[in-house]
Amino acid sequence: MRDAGTSGRSDPADTAEAPIGAEFEAFAPARPGSRRWTWIRIAASVALIALILWQAELGAVLDAMAGVDPRWIALALGLQLVGPAITALRWRGLLAARGVTPGWPYLWGSMLVSGFFRQFMPTIIGGDVIRGYDAWRAGATTGLAVMSLVLDRLFGLLALATLTFGGVLLSAEISARLPGIGFYVAAVFVVLVALIAQILLPSRLSLRLGAAGLARLPAMVRGRVAKIAEALVTYRDARGVLAQALALSFVLQLTVITFYWSIGRALGLPVDYASFFVIAPVAIFVMMLPISINGIGVREGVFVFLLGQWGVAPAEAVALAWIEYGIFLVFGLLGGGLYALRRR
Predict the structure, then answer these.
(1) Engineering a disulfide at 114: which of 130, 141, 297, 319 sits with its beta carbon 3.0 to 4.6 angstroms away?
(2) At what angle do helices 276-287 and 181-200 cross, to 10 degrees?
(3) Mind listing the pLDDT tens digit for each residue in 189-211?
(4) Rounded to an integer, what distance in angstroms lies between the CA atom of residue 24 and that of residue 280?
(5) Does the structure show a pLDDT above 50 at 13?
(6) Residue 315 parent element (H or E)
(7) d(CA 124, CA 117)
(8) SS3 helix, strand, coil % of the chain, rounded to 5?
(9) Cα–Cα separations (whole angstroms), residue 271 to 38, 268, 303
(10) How far apart are CA 229 and CA 147, in angstroms?
(11) Share of residues in the chain with pLDDT > 90 (%)
């Protein structure tokens, strides 16, 4: 088993083989129509892929992929190791605010394992549930584990929106190719700032509404939500921790943008680095929508549309989407191997 660091509890695998994520089931209850919704998403993925390949011939896509520059692909692969490493460092700081100090290698491994569940078992156990379970195993309360992940995700999105907005302001070409994009990015930025402010500095009205809503929850869920509220008290006074998390979020999102740009370079696409400050974030936000399985179909469609504004042929845009997804699957398999080793 891996060492969880200087703070931790015994691994359930050493005792009763507790199910993964058992501590977090109350936050993700099974929905009666979830299986039907899964089949709808599968159908959407198939339909979208069929439509896109009707526009971009499969042979042309494969030809584009066959001609990639392996040096740029190597850079993209390296960035996929760096990204989880930065996220693990940010996550470690958020946990340390409450005295939970798992080792950085442990959290980096958790990031890779969560990628396996996110890519191969998206409808059963999400990657964040695995991360929450690992934080709990390292000594965090349920509330701290959940809240650290919420802030981790929100800071990442805020940094991504900020970089996108900066790219729009600094590039007249982007605004010309994607009219109105600045308004939508600004709206996302404002929503994220308002949401983080309400979490860290809630108004009296939101506190009253939260208390009223909490009283209506089932007892088990009410107790766990109360633990999350307790964890928030720590973060409201931990300005240094939050500033570090935000700074690391900007570094992380720069690696994400560079990852997509490097794939574009591998394919020889006529798109400059600055343009990927908008292309990559917009694609990521769209792929987060629960329309299809793992963004399959949506991923190809959004890249065909966005890169098409820069004159990229549909086949080349689909090639970028497939290379990106292929890299994700490779690292998902790596995470699966780490998970298999730690469960022995």
Answers:
(1) 130
(2) 60
(3) 888 888 777 777 655 545 455 55
(4) 31
(5) no
(6) helix 314-342
(7) 8
(8) 75, 0, 25
(9) 35, 9, 12
(10) 8
(11) 32
In tens, the pLDDT along 39-97 reads 666 676 677 667 677 667 788 888 999 999 999 999 999 999 999 999 999 999 999 98
* 301: its two tokens: 């469609």
* Cβ partners under 8 Å of residue 238, min gap 6: 97
For CA atoms 233, 239, 245, 246, give the dihedral sign: positive
Q: Which two tokens stand for residue 271?
A: 């798109």
Q: Rg (Cα) of the chain, in Å, rounded?
A: 21
Exposed, middle or buried by CB within 10 Å (0-12, 13-18, 19+), for 180?
A: exposed
3-state secondary structure of 197: helix
The two tokens of residue 249 are 């979020």
**N-terminal to C-terminal alpha carbon distance within the chain:** 8
Q: pTM to 2 decimals?
A: 0.78
Find out whether 83 and 248 touch, Cβ atoms under 8 Å: no
